[in-house]
Amino acid sequence: MRQLHSDVAERRRDVSIGLVAGAIGAGIWAVIAYFTGFELGWIAWGVGLLVGVGVAIGNKGEGSVPAGVLAAVLAILSVVGGKYAMVRMVIPDEGELVASTIAALEDEELVVSGGCRGRLSR
User: Is the pTM of this model over 0.90?
Assistant: First the structure.
C-alpha cells in the first residue's frame, strides 16, 4: 500500500510540473503568434521539449514508459491549448464581430467591391 501511495504522489508531481511547463509554453506560443501575426510551427517543438523536461524533472530524471506517455499527452494538450488561446486572441468574439458588422452597415457610406463608393438608400 505504501508503494502505491508513493507512485501516486510521484505521478502527481510529474503531472503538475508537466502541466505548468505546458501552460508556459502554450502561453508563449500564443503571445508570439498574436504579436507577430504568424503561427510559427517550430515553437510547438519547443512546447513539447518544455513539457518533456518538466515531466523528467518531476520524475527525477528516471525515464519510464508511463512518464514518456504522460509527457506526450501533456505536450499534445499544450499545443492544442496554445492554438486555442492563439485563435481566441486573434479572432474577436462573435458578439464583437456582429456589433462591428452592424455598425459598419449602419454607416451611410458603403465600400462596394471593386473600390467603388456608394450611398445606402434609406
Answer: no
